[in-house]
């Protein structure tokens, strides 16, 4: 399988970048996007040339580290699939594939395709936790929750924080990410103590670093964890609830 790659090269956050053309005559359709970059980098290293920098970790679709923009779409053409699971079989022989970092003002480029996602981490730090008394674990039946709530909480807890929702949004909003965290913890018994405080702090941080929701739903279309678009509404709902209940909640 022959492919022409346009890969983003940028020396550092203060440097300007540009696409570099790489011809790959022997790509395997079973390769993932990351394996394709590994293959390209192996050739560069053999020629004593600098490899392309990109981030990856588990390569199993659960860590969120591998976020790339493929032909203008976060992660790639496969819907709700992370870049590490996007296979070259989705492309045709002779295709041109443009690979670049996820684009957002909140995600500055560190080098090549490695970006700084710490803005998402700052939102999470404001409320992505619960307070419990240390010591002996409570009996399993002392904290009651129904199956529907538990399943819904787990569905939203599946967010891997990759930032695809932000990159897909024309306004650079992170409402799907923030809403997923708010829904998850609002449905768990141990998450109730800081529910109001969590909503106030997380939404305040969200508004400092990210744009307003575009209302088009691009975020859910690219989310590799399949977080539903309804999570976006939790941002307004939980913040309004906190305002009505006051600072003590």
Description:
The strands form 2 sheets. This protein has a 5-stranded mixed beta sheet. A two-stranded antiparallel sheet has the order 6-7. The protein folds into 2 domains: 109 residues, Ubiquitin-like (UB roll) (Roll); 118 residues, Alpha-helical ferredoxin (Fumarate Reductase Iron-sulfur Protein, Chain B, domain 2). The protein starts with a strand and ends with a helix. By secondary structure, it is α+β, with helices and mostly antiparallel strands. The chain is 34% helix and 11% strand. The mean pLDDT is 93. It has 8 helices and 7 strands. Helix 3 runs antiparallel to helix 5, helix 5 crosses helix 8 and helix 6 packs across helix 8. Belongs to the succinate dehydrogenase/fumarate reductase iron-sulfur protein family. InterPro entries: 2Fe-2S_ferredoxin-like_sf, 2Fe-2S_ferredoxin-type, 2Fe2S_fd_BS, 4Fe4S_Fe-S-bd, 4Fe4S_Fe_S_CS, Beta-grasp_dom_sf, Helical_ferredxn, SDH/FRD_Iron-Sulfur.
